[in-house]
Amino acid sequence: MVEVLLFILRRLGRLLLTVWLISTIIFFVIRVIPGDPALVIAGVDASAEDVAAIRARIGTDRPLASQYFDWLWRVARFDFGTSLSSGQPVTGLILERFGLTLSLALLGLLISLVVALPLGVVSAVRRWSFWDYLGMVFSQLGMAVPSFWLGILLLLALAVKVPLFPLFGSGSLRHLVLPAVALGIARAAVLLRLTRVSMVEELAKEYVITARAKGLTERLVKYKHALRNGLLPVVTIAGIQLGYMLGGAIIIEQVFSLPGLGRLFLFAVYQRDFPLIQGGVVFVAFAFSLINFLVDILYSVLNPRIRVG
Amino acid sequence: MAETLLSIRGLKVSFRGRDGSESRALRGIDLDVARGEVHSLVGESGSGKTLTAVCVLGLLPVPPARIEAGSIRFQGVELIGLPEAERRKLRGRRIGMVFQEPSKYLNPAMRVGEQILEALVLHLGLTRNEARLRAGELLELVGLPGGRRVLRRYPHELSGGMRQRVMIAMAVSCDPVLLIADEPTTALDVTLQRQILRLLLELRERLGMAILFVSHDLAVVHGISERISVIYCGKIVESGSRERVFARPLHPYTQALLASIPQASRRGTRLRAIPGTVPDASHVPAGCAFHPRCPLAVERCREEVPRLLDYAGNGGTPREAAADRSETGETHLAACHLVGT
User: Fold this and answer.
1) Do B156 and A303 touch (CB under 8 A)?
2) What is the pTM of this model?
3) Which of A156, A246, B209, B253 has the most CB atoms in a 10 Å sphere around its CB?
4) Shortest distance, CA A223 to any CA of chain B (angstroms)
5) B94 near B176, Cβ under 8 Å?
6) CATH number belonging to domain A99-271
7) pLDDT at A120 > cutoff 90
């Protein structure tokens, strides 16, 4: 029990370290790249006094160390200041959009798992069967077809020709189905290959022979003994993919006109909205680390060997 | 000889390679294991000893392997051709198996208790709770005091010796009549080897099972076996009681194996290794497979495959090996043209 607690604490420490590193990097990168935010805000025609006033307001006139510690303190409180373009608090803007992105990412992951796991496992158990070939064709296509194109195709087929789903907008689960499918298929293709490879590997291991030597049925040998080990790498990669999707699926959100994080950040870059960019990067890094942290915990529950190391 | 438990006759197994090549891994194995005896099957790696054990369990991967001929009778029932569902009822129930490397042969993601109790639930119809109690007792039986606590451990949390004990507990959980132990001590250090061997013999006494002990190490085999069969290139070349095989080995291969055991009395002299290597199963020499390495080989050895004959009778005159050896009393079989010459 103490062991488990220590493990969790260690991973939590790593999470905080990651967020701190990202915050630090983004802080200095923003200050190193050319362009004074005060000048951007004030505009080209502004007087030196105006620019100085703005500098004083946003704090860039103070010593770097003082700015840095101030920034860290604000990061710790999840306060990223106010957006330059809208004048609203950055944290509020992000959280407002986050619900949609999170739902989209979770639904996308769910769809990819539902497709990839059964097909990947069957492909491995019945190698060179119909299902295996189906899986191969699916994963080749899934990896080759760009998801925005798939999204457009889905819209044409299921929103225009046969209007089962809304064409754009958000607010209900039905709005999310098509973008989640478009997003999930590409992930499913990767997860399917991974599941198959991992299961094939496990089925060739010695403990499988032991399980057979006990007289267990093939079903127990494969789906109890091998599957438990075979899904371990899939958990990790699925977690990483969820993390990526949380950063916002910019292209998919664009295709389906969804007001998610991806579009918010894209907008922030167009507008040179530095507080929003900074806040966005730190937020995404935090979300990504948090997912990884949770996946690590889940992984350690599934794979007892990991806790020792 | 006591009642025959396992009787293998003329077992031939071949593997077909991807390039279409054929390797004859077992070239007609004859082997008898009597009820309750410790029978060692000794040979170098690649000789087919593990494969023979795998065939008895019915775990031969078909394809690429193929049983070409032969019979395996266990408790009077022919196993070759027996439906898989029937064979499965024997595995883990009447025939237990202990493997070489417990660290690889235990499922790393499953608690030890779960791995032991599965067979109990499956074969003996115990409830999970009953099976858990029984699994705890089994761990005590194999010398893991506080077995109940070990049940909750994962394999990686145990030492090598403990893992092998767990493996043994699993194999004997359903009170089998035959335990196949495939090099159970090879992956362990010497002090542990002794403990594990002693444990196996103890369990044999208590449970009355026969042990087919597969090993490459005649020195290990000497301490435990009642009967020894020597396998070379997928064929039994000699089989007899331990006393006979060690005192009067008939086959030159057995003689060479015995001479290669390091002995304190020969301290300071060179180890006598057998020259050459075991031929590959896809290129088995014609005639007696051992002839290229045999110091005594004559023309006949290169041409004619020697038959397994019984030399236990008076004056060393060979007899045909009886089909049912349970009637014939003591036997000492060898497959060599030169015995008695």
Assistant:
1) no
2) 0.81
3) B253
4) 13
5) yes
6) 1.10.3720.10
7) yes
